[in-house]
Amino acid sequence: MINAVGKPQSILLLGGTSDLGLAVVEEFLSRGPARVILAARAGSDLSGPVARCEAAGASGVETVDFDATAFDTHDAVINSVEGDIDLAIVAFGVLGDNEQQWQDQKQAVLAAEVNYTGAVSVGVLLADRMKKQGHGQIVVFSSVAGEMVRRSNFVYGSTKAGVDGFYRMLGEALRGTGVHVLTVRPGQVRTKMTDGLDDAPLTVDKSVAAKAVAAGVDAGRSVIWVHPLFRWVMLILKNLPQAVVRRLPI
Ligand SMILES: NC(=O)c1ccc[n+]([C@@H]2O[C@H](COP(=O)([O-])OP(=O)(O)OC[C@H]3O[C@@H](n4cnc5c(N)ncnc54)[C@H](OP(=O)(O)O)[C@@H]3O)[C@@H](O)[C@H]2O)c1
């Protein structure tokens, strides 16, 4: 259970090599030791992620094979975790090249399966597991790209729009069960995923994003914008006609 000072005893990271997910794990470990389970693709080099968790004070680090697109295996992955799952972080995802994705069926389907279907699959299973244990916190990474789907990254953005809607309403469906869901809408964060990209406006470091996530969990929030200004920026952008948006450099 996440105790009165916001410290979980067990943390499951789905997307065990995710830079952002690991930053959130580190942020919670800064409050005291916890057992960490890293769920990552078979064959991933987990030495770095395991070392990060140990250096941050994990009481133990376990690993389990997890492929977001192997939907039939997800039940076994979640069930392989012994004891309660206090905090589950859904952090897997692919960005990809939008111009290739929308013109290449395989790439578009991969993005949809990893980012949306995979996230829905583990969301249902985590909700069931946590309902039975009577408590739990789910954190999922949506994106400002899903809050308003733009021409420049509409394949990725549309998958995140789906994730955002699903998890926000999963949180509603779980009200009163002791299970909480936090949907996180980062703008650009400096991680492995954005390595090599120029900083977009309001880009933040992963430690800043992780602190925002922990604060959101502490406050029992259901949605956060990692950079608070995005809430207002997106509100304005969403209400502009597409003919105007088309002329903007976004
Ligand atoms: N960084 C940003 O600017 C930003 C902004 C908004 C939202 N987000 C979201 O935040 C989350 C974390 O991203 P990040 O910045 O931490 O990027 P990252 O370091 O590239 O992490 C992405 C993770 O997804 C995993 N993954 C990809 N395909 C998978 C599959 N088929 N099965 C299992 N795992 C798979 C990767 O595993 P491998 O190591 O095996 O590839 C990696 O662990 C993602 O959902 C991303 O969309 C990021």
UniProtKB/TrEMBL annotation:
EC code: 1.1.1.333
The family this protein is said to belong to: Belongs to the short-chain dehydrogenases/reductases (SDR) family.
Keyword Oxidoreductase on entry: yes
InterPro entries in UniProt: NAD(P)-bd_dom_sf, Sc_DH/Rdtase_CS, SDR_fam
PANTHER family associated with the record: 5-KETO-D-GLUCONATE 5-REDUCTASE, DECAPRENYLPHOSPHORYL-2-KETO-BETA-D-ERYTHRO-PENTOSE REDUCTASE
Highest taxon above the source species: Bacteria
Pfam families, sorted: adh_short
MF terms (GO), sorted A to Z: oxidoreductase activity
UniProtKB keywords: Oxidoreductase
CDD domains from the UniProt entry: SDR_c
Entry keyword annotation includes Oxidoreductase: yes
Name of the protein described by the UniProt record: Decaprenylphosphoryl-2-keto-beta-D-erythro-pentose reductase
Leading EC class: oxidoreductase
